[in-house]
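Entry 14. Two folds queued back to back today. First construct below, sequence then structure tokens.
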Amino acid sequence: MLRFLLNVLWFVLGGFVMGLGWWLAGLVAAVTIVGIPWARACFVIGNFSFWPFGYEAVSRRELTGRMDFGTGPLGLVGNVIWFLLAGWWLAIGHLSAAVACFVTIVGIPFGLQHIKLALIALAPIGLQVVPVRR
């Protein structure tokens, strides 16, 4: 119940805007055709950005125990290209939102989520969103 309440508050107080930012980046990437791998990552992380409480982003290599395109050398190159073209913009958006959340005591959990998402924004290729393990 607490996760649901936190997700609703998150969505209303800024998560919706950041999720749309991720989706916009995904649409721009998809239009270029060569950006489709980045577009897929944007839509996955965008959905995570809408409802982050109760989920985490983990490396697919750690999750599956094997490498794939996103977790190998091509994924590294993809993340470098992503960082240069769009990653730092999304990270700045999340960091700005985190600072605004940290101004209030109530906003601290939201600020922490924004910091997690800012780190993900820097290199999203090779990550998979999964429910939090207990």
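Second construct, same run, same settings:
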Amino acid sequence: MAACKVNQLDSLLLDSFYQDLICQQLLKPFPFDSIKTFFSISLVKTAYLYSGLWHGKDTQGNIIYNTTYKLPSNPWLFIHYFFEIFQILNITFKEHLGRIHTLWNLALFINWVLFLITSKYRNLAERLGKILILSKDPEKRLNIDYMYTQRAVFFAIVSDTIKAIMPYLKINSLLKFLNDESNLISDGSDYCVVCDAEEIVSPMYYNGCSHIACYVCWQGRVGKGCPRCKD
């Protein structure tokens, strides 16, 4: 059973995206000329076909969009590979191909129209090599785990909610309230009267005076009073 046109095209676009991304990373560090660019892209295309189609394995695009290959005999695979490489040549050296470039593009357009009518052969290389794309599981449309999407939607809602209420919050008052209530840090104007530390952790005030100490220091002198006041 032939896969629907949308799944076939999305599968092709995803695989093309992966290949283009790899090519960009390969070409980025070096100022490649047209010849080196052609061979680099051809190498990536060959590796992709070797790891997928030629071994009868589904690509990432196939897996996600519930499609699979119907493999022809080896001679047709060779013809398909030849025209995949020719397509790269057509793009890289289009200024030098003249009428061949024009005729190839016309053939691409005709193939596109035929694909829209028949749902077979997404590109001209697949048509010439008889590479059919079938639906792997007729009961399913896509093979996607939506957990990531659900998490993304949840955090988007939380983010939008926070943005909506932020203008109505008195942040400075809220922070002062939390600081006063939690007593996590001192205001920096004093130091611990026991260990002389300027950064007081969980400051505690002695009864009867305004001197402060770290909680651990204060706890160690419970019942002994303030060491500065001797009280």
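Quick look at the second one. Residues 204 and 219 are 9 Å apart (CA to CA). The beta strands are 67-70, 132-135, 204-205, 212-213.
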